[in-house]
Amino acid sequence: MQKPRLSLIQIWNMSIGFLGIQVAFGLQNANASRIFQTLGADINELAILWVAAPLTGLLVQPIVGHMSDKTWGRLGRRRPYFLVGAVLVTLSLLIMPSSPALWFAASMLWILDASINITMEPFRAFVGDLLPDEQRMSGFAAQSFFIGVGAVGASALPWMLTHWFGMDNTAAPGVVPLTVHIAFYVGAAAIFIAVMWTVLTTKEYSPEQMAAFEAARLAQRGVDAATRPDRPASDFRRWGLMSVLIGALVTAGVGALDLEKEVYILGAGLIAFGLCLLVHAGLKNTGNNQNGFSEVMEDLFAMPAVMRRLAVVQFFSWFALFAMWIYTTSAVTAFHYGTSDTASQAYNDGADWVGLLFAVYNGVAAIAAFLLPVIARFIGRRGAHMLSLCLGGAGLISFMFIKDPALLWLPMIGVGFAWSSILSSPYSILSAAVPAAKMGVYMGIFNIFIVVPQVLAASILGAVLRAGFGGEAIWALVLGGASMILAAVAMLAVKDEV
């Protein structure tokens, strides 16, 4: 029993929800630092303020993935999570630009990102659930297209409100401009409408159908259903103790070596992960490990080889992206516009231009979504991803050498190809390598290798810039570009199973 091929309209219907998700994500990425600085954040505080967002994804996505694997009801398996997440994102977008203080804005970023993750994670598994192997590249490419379209509108919206509708993009010190408020309200409507479109126009296969499809797929490959190795509790205990010990040493080193306080995040994260492993080891010893928490811990250490190698690629790719999202506004306003005064016209003009630059790379990503499957037919999915990552890395590095801000759209072409491929190629390769019954949880676990580099970037980038680059944000983009090129090199170790 083979999964039927879906029509282009069906693929688009199941992907339109990502349009709304990316509107919200684009507004967050292009405007969160602007809101933080407007409310009094120093440039050196931006990374630490952003860290709540990836930490939220680290916790939420594996949990939602596991839960959605086990869910079945009137709305299906994944669609209930689309709906709940969309409602929460809508409310968060309505509230965030009216934040009365910096701590409130940081809290709203945390809530907004958690809500986006609740909606986003099941969409990744959705493609694996509904499409046969040969259509998955097209399915993830369709998501990339809608991500690009949504982000173009979201990133450029404050600029359009200023230049097309004559709204003032400045406000009194400590007040978020009206253009940002309006942009967030439009985004709230967009995500709710787009996600509801997918919920109402797409149906899911039943658990029985999914089991039959998976059995047929494995039989076609001539392999038996994969069985997860039963690791002894002592392994988890040993790994847990090592993680706690390393985390404690990192934490102690902050004071002893007078490191930046952001490094505490790394130590705390390692300790928390180690404690999770120790709890699981204890549950396994007592035979009380038949629960979602223990199952996720077991799945984490039973990842397919392809997934482990893709994890390295994801690490370097997302370190680069997070550097770009945090520091592009600061880099362009300071390096190209010559100001860090958030109340000045030059700063706000530069911040609006960054929004437009983000729109450019997302627009390119939408076009690249159609080109990447064609390129992959000639050089494979692995080759297409390597090429895209190299283009993105070169684009970020070139910010240092382009002095005229009007020309900064040129490197965004390379960034757009990288972004489109990052959103599609690794997931297409991964979906062919993991069991269908665990598509959700493995897509969620895969998010760990997106979050870890973001936490690392938030922990050390500010310190690295202060210690080695005089606090100049432009160097964060150069470091991001180098990281993206390293991701392309790491792709050489990945074997595409289709």
Please describe the topology of this protein:
Blueprint: H1 8-15, H2 17-38, H3 46-50, H4 52-70, H5 79-95, H6 102-130, H7 136-163, H8 178-201, H9 207-221, H10 233-256, H11 264-285, H12 292-300, H13 305-336, H14 345-397, H15 409-422, H16 425-431, H17 439-446, H18 448-468, H19 474-490
Helix pairs in contact: 1-8, 2-6, 2-7, 2-8, 2-13, 2-14, 4-6, 4-17, 4-18, 5-6, 5-8, 6-17, 7-8, 7-14, 7-16, 10-11, 13-14, 13-18, 13-19, 14-15, 14-16, 14-19
Q: In a nutshell, what does this entry contain?
A:
The protein has 498 residues and is an all-alpha fold.
Structure description:
This protein is mainly alpha-helical and 498 residues long. The protein has 3 domains: 1-221, Growth Hormone, Chain: A; 233-302; 305-497, Growth Hormone, Chain: A. Helix content is 75%, strand content 0%. It has 19 helices and no strands. α6 (102-130) crosses α17 (439-446), α13 crosses α14 and α14 crosses α15 (409-422). It is globular, with a radius of gyration of 22 Å. 54% of the residues are buried.
Order of helices and strands: HHHHHHHHHHHHHHHHHHH
CATH class of the largest domain: Mainly Alpha
Q: What is the tally of helical segments?
A: 19
Total strand segments: 0
Number of domains as seen in the coordinates: 3
Any idea what the shape is? globular
Named CATH topology of the largest domain? Growth Hormone, Chain: A
Helix amount: over 70%
End-to-end gap: 19 Å
Structural class comes to mainly alpha
Under CATH, the homologous superfamily of the largest domain reads MFS general substrate transporter like domains
What is the averaged pLDDT score?
A: 84
Pfam families: MFS_1 (PF07690)
Subcellular location: Membrane
Protein name: MFS transporter
Membrane topology: Multi-pass membrane protein
